[in-house]
Amino acid sequence: MSESEMAVHGHGALLEESPYAIPSRKLTMWLFIISDAVTFGAFLFAYGYIRVSAANWVRPFETGSVVNVILMTVVLITSSLTMLGAADASKDGDKAKAMRFLYSTMALGAVFAALHLREWFELFGRHITLSSGLFGQTFFTITGLHLLHVISGVIAMAVIGAKYSSGRLTPGHVESMGLYWHFVDLVWMFVVPLVYLTNFAH
Amino acid sequence: MSAAGASGNVIRKYLPVYFILLAIFLVEVFLSFQHFATGMLVVILLLLAVCSATLGLMYFMHLADERRGLFLTLIPVTIFVLLMMNMFWSDSVRLLHMRPGAQ
User: Hey, which residues 45-64 in chain B have their CB within 8 Å of chain A?
Assistant: First the structure.
């Protein structure tokens, strides 16, 4: 193996083949995703159980909030699609196109974060905060953790995009970034029904 | 096929999954305004969320294209750990009594 190949693939390529036929970077990302899924699972299970058990749960969301949540969800799912485009274009060696898709994904992530923060400030205006009972504690913890993932993802994408375009990172890095971003999207699919939509249950 | 053409194809390839995910989400929104008891609504919405997550995992995250060993290593264990969290559920109810004014 040449020195340049070693720089790209690392020493792991000299060892035995992965039983999963994927690079160690990708497997590490999968393991991170699984551990993160369990973390979110713990929060969501706790939320779901407390929500069902509580007789007088706070119901702060109105029709405007539903419209906001629909917008947020459409934005996030669309960003997953653009991320797929980025990973695929990078695999094809089309850097310009990969970067365009990455910028689109980052922009959609930023829009999602802005919509989320707008909703938070609206709740703050109605004196619903982290310290206002079980609803505030669970709502801001779960959505805050998710928002942290989105913001970290956008920052990570900016760093990976910059390094990828300058040739210091490989398409594999963009693909691993994509796995993380799709995971953030998947978590949102559980957050919305549990945290927002059960607000309207009778 | 040109590189640009291939990248465009991947979007077209996954567009049906994208629309199915949006459709499932809109069904969830619709159901949340129907007259279901909270517990029943949570169960229905979670089942739909599991369908969305499965589509996302298999197609957006390409788990369907990986070796089956990866799927078998990651997913059953995760489901097992998540289900084992049921053990904590009964404890979580005590929070309501331990924290005055929690409701």
Answer: 45-46, 48-49, 52-53, 56-57, 60-61
| pLDDT band at residue B4 under the 50/70/90 scheme | very low
A18 DSSP assignment? P
CA nearest to A32, candidates B10, B55, B61: B61
Q: How far apart are CA B75 and CA B72, in angstroms?
A: 6
C-beta of residue A31 within 8 angstroms of C-beta of residue A181: no
ipTM over 0.90: no
Name the minimum distance, in Å, from the CA of B1 to any CA of chain A: 11
| Rounded Cα distance, B45 and B42, in Å | 5
Confidence of residue A162 (pLDDT cuts 50, 70, 90): very high
The domain tally of chain B equals 2
Structural domains of chain A, ranges and CATH numbers in brackets:
24-200 (1.20.120.80)
